[in-house]
Fold Dipeptide transport system permease protein DppB.
Amino acid sequence: MAQYIARRLLMVIPTLIAISLITFIIMHATPGSPMQPSAPQANPLPPAAQEALAKKYGLDKPLWQQYLHYLRNIFTLDFGFSYQYQTREVREIMATTLPVSLHLGVMAMALAILIGIPLGVIAAINQNGPVDYLCSFIATLGVAVPNFILALFLIVLLVLLIPIIPRTGGWDSPIDWVLPTLALSLGPIGIIARYTRASMVEVLRQDFIRTAYAKGLSDRQVIVRHVLKNGLIPPITILGPMFAAIGTGSPFVEKIFRVPGMGRFFVDSLIARDYPMIMAVILIYGAFLAIMNIVVDILYGVVDPRIRLA
């Protein structure tokens, strides 16, 4: 197990290098310059000022030199200074915003697992019945409705019509966590429920399930001991990428609820062509995704002892 984890972690390094190279090429191939103000009404900088800024950030050097310089620095987690927030290092911004996004992502993911898996199990047990149709409708609704639409709906419902939540934004108290968590969790709830239902239905049709019933086991024993354990592999597969996506920042949800997370900064960085910030966010997402895939592989062996990691 330890050798497998170490080997997989070593494979993350060339993956991140490839991600950084592709991102670097795409950013510099995009029309526009980070030296120009992004606001529509802003006055363009004079050529002398643009040259001074380009020299300050090393943008006057050949692209291959810029990339090698950046690659050397990221191994020490030195992402440089932000072009948009010129007095702040990207590393400093990440240190304050990433924990907030992770906090929101953990809460949303926990809620999605607690609701999505039971929803899928109930739908599979009551296949093609009214309960199945209701659960499938809720799951489909979660997948179909974008989180920013759901965020606006929650504000109207829980803040204006039924004033359970006193305010709509911020991150100062636990009451501020409720709406963004609900808005961010509905999509994962629907996806997890659909995967769980499909997997459970397939397992329920297997011969060993009929054998378990023939031995006199109750419905609960069959579901818990046999169906659920064998049916959790597909849902677990999607949990890693899903958590990596919502745990590294949700731009729309964080914007609407004024959550000081990494997603808000990423959107602003894209608009301003803040190269160091964009590169840092994408690399963090890539590293987080690779690590979550390793965690998923380990969970395979926990859920199903027949799976061995080599």
About this structure: The radius of gyration is 24 Å. The chain is about 75% helix and 0% strand. The mean pLDDT is 82.
